[in-house]
Amino acid sequence: MMPDPAFAEWMRAVQVRMEAALDGFLPSDTEAPAQLHAAMRYAVLDGGKRVRPLLAFAAGAVFEAPEAALARAAAAVEMIHAYSLVHDDMPCMDDDALRRGKPTVHVQFGEATALLAGDALQSQAFLVLAEGSDAVDPARRVAMLRLLADASGSRGMCGGQAIDLASVGLTLTLPQLEQMHRLKTGALLRVSVMLGALCGKTLTPTEEAALNDYAAAVGLAFQVVDDVLDATADSGTLGKTAGKDAADNKPTYVSMLGLEQSQALARKLRDDAHKALAPFGDRAHLLRELANLIVQRKA
Ligand code: GRG
């Protein structure tokens, strides 16, 4: 199924908008300490699919959120994502030399600078969100900060990463694998949707629950597809190392369910995501298209 041209155009516009927003929200590399600022910018700019910002903008569209507020919220999530990749690539974690087709931050700038760049990106994310846009009132802004802190901390992404590291060489059950991914990658994808929505009109509890269901399904689908791509990638494709997780003796959906069942699970999760969007009708068409794209993606 090809995405409709208007959707492809919308995606490109958000990606361009985000590049400019991120550029503006990051410290200049002419400002001291220049090396640290250069590493932060290198980690964030000119690369990445911007899936999290796309989810935020698509959720914002359901609730008529203003673009300036969305760009801020999306930039904050993308900075957390970038920091997680910088740290994940370091020798003490995955020890990867390539990311987004270019040398990883520690290869390019050294380990100490990479560590600090990740730390500083995390702080910058909260600063950008806290400074907020006038369209989002201060109480709502605090709620958004809490959501982002929760999604990225020990009960979210960092917690998932800790479980992942501890699971090397172990046999996980399917629910344990799912819980690990719901935290490690799902939490940030989910908060992207929620922050985008919170930039707009007030959500009813039913709408919030529906959006949560959508985000949970899409977040897990993203990871299942990542495992499928990892298992089927040619070495060198977009910096992805074929079967790296399996080679590292990490449990994956493909190692537990096999390729075909993993692909079927991704499609089921996409269908779950679509069902969750039913209460929003046409207003959610961008979220619907993104669920399709996440399941059909090739990188
Ligand atoms: C080190 C605190 C800490 C956390 C690391 C998210 C994470 C936790 C590590 C990333 C490891 C990884 C490659 C996970 C697979 C799924 C994933 C998050 C892939 C990268 O996200 P994309 O595909 O990347 O959205 P781009 O480059 O498009 O932004």
Write a structural description.
The chain has helices at 5-25, 34-44, 51-62, 67-88, 105-109, 111-131, 138-152, 157-166, 174-198, 205-232, 244-247, 253-257, 259-276, 285-296, and strands at residues 98-99, 102-103. The protein has a two-stranded antiparallel sheet with strand order 1-2. 70% of the residues lie in helices and 1% in strands. The chain has one domain (5-296): Farnesyl Diphosphate Synthase, CATH 1.10.600. The longest helix has 28 residues, at 205-232. With 299 residues, it is an all-alpha fold.
Low-confidence stretches: 235-240
Overall structural domain count? 1
Q: Write the H/E string, N to C.
A: HHHHEEHHHHHHHHHH
User: Architecture, CATH level 2?
Assistant: Orthogonal Bundle
- Mean pLDDT rating: 92
The first-to-last residue Cα distance is: 17 Å
Organism: Noviherbaspirillum humi
Family: Belongs to the FPP/GGPP synthase family.
Protein name: Farnesyl diphosphate synthase
Pfam families: polyprenyl_synt
Q: What key attributes describe this structure?
A:
magnesium; single chain; binds geranylgeranyl diphosphate; 14 helices; 2 strands; Farnesyl Diphosphate Synthase; mainly alpha; 299 residues; two-stranded antiparallel sheet; isoprene biosynthesis
Secondary-structure topology with pairs:
Blueprint: H1 5-25, H2 34-44, H3 51-62, H4 67-88, E1 98-99, E2 102-103, H5 105-109, H6 111-131, H7 138-152, H8 157-166, H9 174-198, H10 205-232, H11 244-247, H12 253-257, H13 259-276, H14 285-296
Antiparallel strand pairs: 1-2
Helix pairs in contact: 1-4, 2-6, 3-4, 3-9, 3-14, 4-6, 4-9, 7-9, 8-9, 9-10, 10-13, 10-14, 13-14
Cofactor: Mg(2+)
InterPro entries: Isoprenoid_synthase_dom_sf (IPR008949), Polyprenyl_synt (IPR000092), Polyprenyl_synt_CS (IPR033749), Prenyl_diphosphate_synthase (IPR053378)
Family: Belongs to the FPP/GGPP synthase family.
